[in-house]
Amino acid sequence: MIKIVVxxxxxxxYRGAQPPQVGVAxxxxxxxxxxxxxxxxxVLTPATESILSPKPTSPVTLAGxxxxxxxxxxxxxxGYLAQVLPEGSPIYPLDEQGADGPVLTIEPSVNRxxxxxxxx
Length: 120
What we know:
Blueprint: E1 3-11, E2 14-18, E3 21-23, E4 29-34, E5 40-44, H1 46-50, E6 52-53, E7 60-62, E8 67-72, E9 80-86, E10 103-107
Parallel strand pairs: 1-4, 9-10
Antiparallel strand pairs: 1-2, 3-10, 4-8, 5-7, 5-9, 6-8
């Protein structure tokens, strides 16, 4: 058994995971560590929920400094996906596909602040 630690880093409303991808192997543990002081949401696809034990209910809320640990079950597919968001963010379904193979990709948050205008 291997324990993989994924650190959730913060910069304002930005959240990112280090490392952003981990291999999924039955029996390995994955620990998510909220390295910041503000709350973070861990949003999971149904496929990702299905390979974690104990089975989480998305989104998983992590207070600042909190950790949560899961054990990978046998992967039944590929392209597992999650996203980290600031607590209180609107949650949109993750409809993209992750990386090919038994890999969990953890997408960073997208800055959705309406005061930040893009385009012309």
